[in-house]
Amino acid sequence: MRPEDLAAALIRICRLGWQKGYLAGGAGNLSARLSPESILITPSGRAKALLEPADLLEVGLDGRVLRGQGRPSGELPMHLAAYRLHPETGAVLHAHPAGATALSLAGRGLDCAALPEMLYHLGEVPTAPYATPSTDQGAAAVEPFLARHRALLLDHHGTLTLGRDLEEAWLFTEMLEHAAQTLIAAQGLGGARPLPPAEQARLRPAGAGQPAPALLLAQRLERVHLAVSHEFKTEKRAQDSRGRLHMVADGLPIAKVSLLELKAGAGRRGGHWHQKKSEWFYVAAGRCLARFEDVDTGERLEWELVEGDRVHIPPGVAHSFEALSDMWFVELCDRPYDQADDLVHEGVRS
Predict the structure, then answer these.
(1) In whole angstroms, what is the distance from residue 123 CA to residue 111 CA?
(2) CA distance linking residue 241 with residue 288, whole number of Å
(3) SS (H, E, C) the chain
(4) Average pLDDT over residues 106-134
(5) Burial bucket for residue 181 (CB in 10 Å: 0-12, 13-18, 19+)
(6) What is the pLDDT of residues 296-310, one digit of tens each?
(7) Are 87 and 213 in contact (CB under 8 A)?
(8) Distance, CA of 340 to CA of 276 (rounded, Å)
(9) Are strands 309-313 and 236-240 parallel, antiparallel or unpaired?
(10) What are phi and psi of 198, to 5 degrees?
(11) How far is 265 from 148, CA to CA, in rounded Å?
């Protein structure tokens, strides 16, 4: 597509988004791949209904503005993460549709188990943890989910969709919002009835419909933040006059559960990896610095984890944890303890 045609198509989506109420005022942002090394993106703080093709900015995948006036959208890091992790992506749309955003505000999430079309086209739609808008935190929050998902809810912050082109990114956003409004309506009738498990299993593999690229370490570590909610949920935190409640996991294949305390300044726990065992690490109180390393590629990653964070650590990923404040955490495993499967790794100890 010629650059001028791509710019015109991007503006059409902006106006559709405004008409639907998905891109009200200056909210939301849209980008499209212009070349292997650059994208077109909407400017920061501008009303989408009034944009013209000349208002768009060309930005390199390194974040440099190559052409255009003003500043690119403050969510540029989130867009660049999507293009970097998925070279086949042709467009990225961050919108604020009312129904989907309302679900994230209420801590409800978008449960696709009752919606065959959603399972078929998108598999599942997880909720990425909250990140301060227009900061690099947005990219860090969505990266762990982008390996397996092309559509996300953003906690307290709308939706994110990735498409092979602008039409597909728009299509996924419309699907999300329609699904959200349908689930909200079903709630008033007693709640949506999930499809039988066998039918869900048949539909899910078709979701996204594209071969997965080689996974980066951040993509392999499924990081989830359990929101505080007084609604019925199987995974959540709650607090009232009686104290705190943590519903840590539901439906995970758990064979062992441990509750551990780690004092600030007392050293690290972990420093090993497993060939067979998967683990889930849940922060019940306090915060820590988590170190991970892919034992095959040597790729390293550090995350600060806080109360409510749960991370899935698959086999082949070395890990250690250092308390930044006195903390309690829960370790869940899919296998009983096997000393032979505890393999020391100095890389995450140092």
Answers:
(1) 11
(2) 27
(3) CCHHHHHHHHHHHHHHHHHHCCCCCCCCEEEEEEECCEEEECECCCCHHHCCHHHCEEEECCCCEEECCCCECCCHHHHHHHHHHCCCCCEEEEECCHHHHHHHHCCCCECHHHCHHHHHHHCCECEECCCCCCCCHHHHHHHHHCCCCCEEEECCCCEEEEECCHHHHHHHHHHHHHHHHHHHHHHCCCCCCCCCHHHHHHHHHHCCCCCCCCCCHHHHCEEEECCECCCCCCCEEEEECCEEEEECCCCCCCCEEEEEEECCCCCEEEEEECCCCCEEEEEEECEEEEEEEECCCCCEEEEEEECCEEEEECCCEEEEEEECCCEEEEEEECCCCCHHHCEECHHHCC
(4) 89
(5) middle
(6) 888 999 999 999 999
(7) yes
(8) 10
(9) unpaired
(10) -65, -40
(11) 37
- Phi and psi, residue 302, nearest 5°: -125, 135
232 C-beta neighbours (distance < 10 Å), count = 8
Instruction: Give residue 78's identity as a one-letter amino acid code.
Output: M
Q: 94, 219 in Cβ contact below 8 A?
A: no
Residue 1: pLDDT over 80: no
CA dihedral over 182, 252, 289, 76, signed as positive or negative: negative
pLDDT digits (tens, 9 = 90+) for 207-261: 544 433 445 788 788 888 998 988 888 889 998 899 999 999 887 788 999 999 9
Q: Which pairing describes strands 279-285 and 309-313: parallel, antiparallel, or unpaired?
A: antiparallel
Spatial CA neighbour of 329 closest among 253, 257, 222? 257
pLDDT of residue 209: 43
CB count, 10 Å around CB of 87?
Answer: 9
Q: Considering the entire predicted model, what is its pTM?
A: 0.60
Q: Does the pLDDT at position 22 exceed 60? A: yes
Q: Are 125 and 151 in contact (CB under 8 A)?
A: yes
Distance CA 329, CA 280 (A): 10
